[in-house]
Amino acid sequence: MLSSATGWWRKHYSKLPPAVQMIGLQLWMPLFFITAFCLCYVVAFHAPKVHDVPVAVVNTPAASVVTQKIEAGAPDTFAFSYFADRSAAVESVRDGDNAAALVISADGQGQPELFVAGAHQFQASSIVKTSFQQIFATGEGVKITDIAPLPKSDSFGQGAMYMMMSWCIAGYMVAMFIGMMGAPLGHWTRVSILAGGAIVLAVVSNVIVGPIVGVYPAEHFLQMTGLAMLWIFAIGLFVNGISYFFGRFITGPALLMFVFVSIPASGAAFPAWMVPSFFKHLQPFVVGHGITEMIKRILYGVGEPYWQGFLLMGAYAVLGVLTMLVGKRWRESKEVDRILSGQSTMMIAAQRAMMAHGMENRATVLRRHGIDPETGKPLHQATGTASADTDDAEAYTELELTAGGDPLVNGGRSLGLGEIDREHDILQADRTGQE
């Protein structure tokens, strides 16, 4: 039933103009994009709500009384965790485990003090400061101490988020094009391109962000560039590995993982306790979180310890290598079965039709301008002649028609696509074996 329906669809679809076929086969991308954008960005950011804000409290009898009153008056707003001493509570704010640390003297006398880290999450520190200023509006109020204030060069703390986004996009785009266009390439060639791309893109991005724009001081340039190289390379390895399984659709999962899900789950735009819990649970596993935390640790001395970021980075890199090793063999076995059975994909058929149509259109245009499409000479000179130029032109035309592809879409040697090129290699090997 399904195969007959698919056959009917392919038969009728192939009758459309080649350009329409090509466009239609790519329209999944805007549909995917708008769906993912709405489900991830709109859902996460359309109505951010404060809930379960993590706050460290130095454990004293007076502090317990205060937190109990806060929980009774504003249930589910704060999630208090108790520490034995001030230094441990403040350090939890520096590491990003808590949005603030509240210190109240044992007897409840004197002014309470609230420690925040503006450089870790600007929105979080602003919300917490406002909330506790209202809570302690009477009496002496609350003393606010920012242990890591943001510099004037990044006054709203958005620099880290946009640097993270640029590294994510750079990593997956290099690998995406390798996956789409580099089907015949071996592992070492792919990895070399990924490494070269990581170096160039890391240097370019940090030259712009650092010395030119001035988001961070020059003293951090080498650290930031090195970190960018590693993350871009790790993301590239992962996307390159899974590209064997997704083929030309690799753009979808790459965008979903490293942009649409990663950004709302990273805590860079809004803290995790302001977005739906789905994204909060994903936070430890998304690269956006690991990158942002490492950037903040380098620039401002806040955020998770480095080992957590490197562990996440290594996990993506290792998964990329494993899927690369397994995926290439799996992909090639599928291609061999398809080619030897005489099957073809709708994309390959559309590309061949597009090339044939392009050759016909080229011939029409040349004739309209009085030029023989086979020889490239004026028609009145070409009549009745046959030369090596004609043979070359015919050979070139035949090559284009059999290659059947647009090198700007999927790449490959000479004029062919990656998949067409690989198909040619497999068929040639089969013919050689038969001879």
Any key phrases for this structure?
elongated, D-Maltodextrin-Binding Protein, domain 2, about 425 residues, about 65% helix, mainly alpha, 19 helices
Topology (elements, then pairings):
Blueprint: H1 2-13, H2 18-24, H3 28-45, E1 53-58, H4 61-73, E2 78-83, H5 86-94, E3 100-103, E4 113-116, H6 122-135, E5 143-146, H7 159-181, H8 187-212, H9 221-246, H10 251-260, H11 262-266, H12 277-282, H13 287-300, H14 306-340, H15 346-368, H16 379-382, H17 388-403, H18 407-410, H19 418-434
Parallel strand pairs: 1-2, 1-3, 4-5
Antiparallel strand pairs: 3-4
Helix pairs in contact: 2-15, 3-10, 7-8, 7-9, 7-10, 7-13, 8-9, 9-13, 9-14, 13-14, 14-19, 15-17
Plain-language structure description:
- The protein is mainly alpha-helical and 435 residues long.
- Among the domains are: 53-149, D-Maltodextrin-Binding Protein, domain 2; 155-338, no CATH class.
- The protein is built from 19 helices and 5 strands.
- It has helices at residues 2-13, 18-24, 28-45, 61-73, 86-94, 122-135, 159-181, 187-212, 221-246, 251-260, 262-266, 277-282, 287-300, 306-340, 346-368, 379-382, 388-403, 407-410, 418-434, and strands at 53-58, 78-83, 100-103, 113-116, 143-146.
- A 5-stranded mixed beta sheet has the order 2-1-3-4-5, with helices on both faces.
- Helix 4 (61-73) links the parallel strand 1 and strand 2.
- Helix 7 (159-181) packs antiparallel against helix 8 (187-212).
- Mean pLDDT is 84; it is low at 385-420.
